[in-house]
Specification:
Blueprint (H helix, E strand, L loop, with lengths): L1 H17 L9 E6 L7 H17 L4 E6 L11 H6 L5 E4 L23 H14 L8 E7 L4 E4 L13 E4 L2 H9 L3 E4 L5 H6 L5 E4 L1 H6 L8 E5 L11 E6 L1 H6 L2 H9 L6 H22 L1 E5 L1 H24 L5 H14 L8
Parallel strand pairs: 1-2, 1-3, 6-7, 6-8, 9-11
Antiparallel strand pairs: 3-10, 4-10, 5-8, 5-9
Helix pairs in contact: 2-10, 4-10, 4-12, 5-11
């Protein structure tokens, strides 16, 4: 009996010693919402990997659950409001989906203000520090760009004049102004609507990078994929993305978890995001090459296109943002200087 009691006491003491005085808190889960499909490279190879980085750096105490395809409801244009209002914790979207709401950052979407993604990403982080007013309602984790727009067309384009009269899907008002300057008609739409717009003949072409065209199987709907020749960059412009977090959620994290978010956002992420978006282009380009024709406009036609687009669109944008008290020309000079500072060699002085 005494031996049994001794064994029981020893076992009980061992269990008590093994039980933490304060149980570990459950991991904090953050909801990240976006509009692209679960098959898109940006979902699989960017957002899910970023979530893994957060989980690893926090020792599993902070986890990000990613919801693609607007699974939590709403429209792509409303994602930034979902973040602001706390409906979701983090959102990935395009400022350009809300025309006129984020006027300053549009300077990086102007025609021929384009460089390698990593260079543009670093320049935009500096720009954001100087001009945070557009995004005061959310905690900006990162501003970044894709490789640049390609024109995916149902008809061949070999000259600037071939674009006249076409109906072209665009993602933003600056893209629309570019299309109008070329004598075509822009139709704005979120990226997920492109296959239907092409298959039903609503548009003749779509203005998106190879990355998005691949995931949407645009190469199965069009035969021609048009870029520019004779320039360091073969694209007219790129598109700004934002990864944003709700301020209250960010401030409510424990200091060490906020530090994890900080270490995986901003300037620390610029090169990684740039490399990702460079790599996303290759599968889309190869799918387009295999099923259709890659057309590079000759230098003479690019010069004509540039003459029709560059200054007219810049002046239109500068006039538009001036109504908000913004000196567009000064912002453009600043953006170009930042791009050159970070290594761009293909931006107009």
């Amino acid at each position: 009996m005494q031996r049994s009691l001794s064994i029981w006491i020893a076992t009980t003491v061992a269990l008590l010693l093994a039980t933490p005085a304060h149980p570990e808190p459950a991991p904090r889960e953050l909801k990240l919402h976006h509009m692209m499909s679960a098959m898109a490279p940006a979902h699989r190879l960017m957002l899910l990997e970023w979530a893994e980085r957060i989980a690893g750096a926090s020792g599993g105490r902070l986890r990000v659950k990613v919801f693609p395809s607007m699974q939590l409801g709403g429209q792509a244009a409303g994602l930034i409001d979902q973040v602001r209002d706390g409906i979701v914790d983090i959102g990935w979207t395009l400022p350009g989906y809300s025309p006129g709401r984020f006027p300053s950052i549009e300077v990086f979407e102007l025609p021929f203000v384009i460089a390698r993604p990593a260079v543009m990403n670093r320049a935009m982080q500096d720009f954001l520090q100087r001009h945070p007013e557009d995004f005061a309602e959310v905690k900006v984790l990162n501003l970044f760009v894709h490789r640049g727009q390609v024109l995916h067309s149902r008809r061949p384009i070999h000259r600037a004049d071939d674009l006249r009269g076409m109906k072209i899907r665009v993602p933003s008002r600056v893209g629309g102004w570019i299309v109008e300057a070329l004598g075509a008609t822009p139709l704005g739409s979120p990226v997920q609507n492109i296959p239907e717009m092409l298959s039903k003949g609503i548009v003749d072409a779509a203005y998106i990078p190879y990355e998005a065209s691949h995931g949407l199987k645009v190469h199965e709907l069009v035969d021609y994929h048009v870029t520019l020749g004779g320039l360091p960059s073969d694209r007219i412009q790129t598109q700004v993305f934002i990864l944003a977090m709700n301020w209250a959620v960010y401030r409510g994290l424990e200091p060490d978890l906020r530090a994890v978010i900080d270490a995986n956002s901003g300037i620390a992420l610029c090169d990684w995001l740039g490399e990702k978006w460079d790599s996303f282009e290759d599968p889309g380009r190869e799918a387009a090459r295999a099923s259709g024709s890659l057309i590079e406009l000759p230098a003479a036609e690019v010069a004509l296109l540039r003459d029709r687009v560059e200054q007219p669109v810049i002046e239109r944008w500068a006039t538009t943002v001036a109504r908000r008290g913004i000196d567009g020309h000064a912002l453009l000079d600043e953006a170009r200087a930042l791009l050159r500072q970070h290594g761009a060699d293909d931006v107009t002085p």
